[in-house]
Write a structure and sequence with these properties.
Keywords: Coiled coil
Radius of gyration: 41 Å
Strand content: under 5%
Largest sheet: none
Number of strands: 0
Distance between the termini: 140 Å
């Protein structure tokens, strides 16, 4: 009888110890899960940031291309103006 009580007490202690170990393991897994979720959130934020940077880079390239086109047009008009001025000067000199 004493042996049976002692055996049950030992089983209860082992069960309690196993449960405590399982609780500790679950806490560790929970912490790992939270860290994983934070890492995923950081990765999502990084992906969104990369997308935003790529979009801004594309917009900048578009603006630069427009500026280049405007500059080319300005140079063309400047050349035409210089040519017209030269013709005007030549005709003025010719008239005089």
């Amino acid at each position: 009888m004493v042996d049976l009580a002692h055996e049950r007490e030992q089983e209860a202690k082992e069960t309690m110890e196993a449960l405590q170990n399982e609780i500790t393991r679950l806490h560790e897994l929970s912490g790992q899960g939270e860290a994983l979720m934070a890492g995923r959130q950081d990765a999502r934020s990084g992906t969104v940031l990369l997308h935003d940077v790529a979009q801004m880079r594309s917009q900048l390239e578009t603006v630069n291309a427009k500026q280049d086109a405007v500059e080319a047009q300005r140079l063309e008009l400047e050349t035409k103006l210089e040519s017209a001025n030269a013709e005007l000067q030549a005709s003025y000199t010719h008239v005089m």
